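We emphasize that the prediction below concerns an isolated chain of 257 residues; any contacts that depend on oligomerization or on bound cofactors are therefore not represented. The input was used exactly as deposited, without trimming of termini.
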Amino acid sequence: MSTRVFPGILRLVGTAVLSLGMAAMSPLACHRSARADDFAPPQDRLPFEAPAGAVVLLGPGIAPRFRAMDGGPADWKRDGDELIVTPSEGHANHIHSIDTFQDADLHAEFVVDPLAHGNSGLYFHGWFEMQIYDSAGIDPVTDQDEGSLYRFAQPLLNAARPAGQWQVYDIRYTAPRRGADGKVTRPGSIIAWLNGKKVQDGVEFDEPRSPYIPYKHGVTDHLRAVEKTLLETGRGPIFLQDHGSPTRFRNIWFVRR
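Result of the prediction step, given as a token string:
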């Protein structure tokens, strides 16, 4: 995400929107999936080991399965089994998974740093960002705080822990479906748990809203090819975002659905 601008104003706007109720918000962002959901991942202990059948992107005893923006080796600092964001001047030194998916349940553990508000994120397919941010104690939370689907929906509640503590996301991602013309025929959806609390409950979305997605901000020929494949097949990677803060990650895996 972008560095927060005029936070007081944003929070006043957020409060006003909440006071107006659902009618004041985008119908798409507010819609909650009506289907039954059994996604309630355990988050009571960390680290939490990957289950059988999971694709492990970052974990004990394996080389991280991530690439740089140009398709070369990821240049983030390693500390044992952890990866630490190595910020770039343009806040565009993201990395993306070698492995791809269409729909998946993703697990990621992370520590935010006070520098640059702990700003980072999990970009599903490089289009839709589950926010990572130093948001502990913020009230009210907005669609730019931790637990939000960035620029779509604020979290249901503030579940962020203070900077320096390990935190955990478990996210059920269902990708939008597209027709032959490339247009969305069925919205995607996200159910997300953060630190033992459900923060998104089936929020739906169609097209990306952030100007900072990797295919626009710091884009490379390699990423243009990644997005082309995504549009053709519906399968894409997960990106870990660089936004100027040395966020620390460990134990990242997903299970295809």
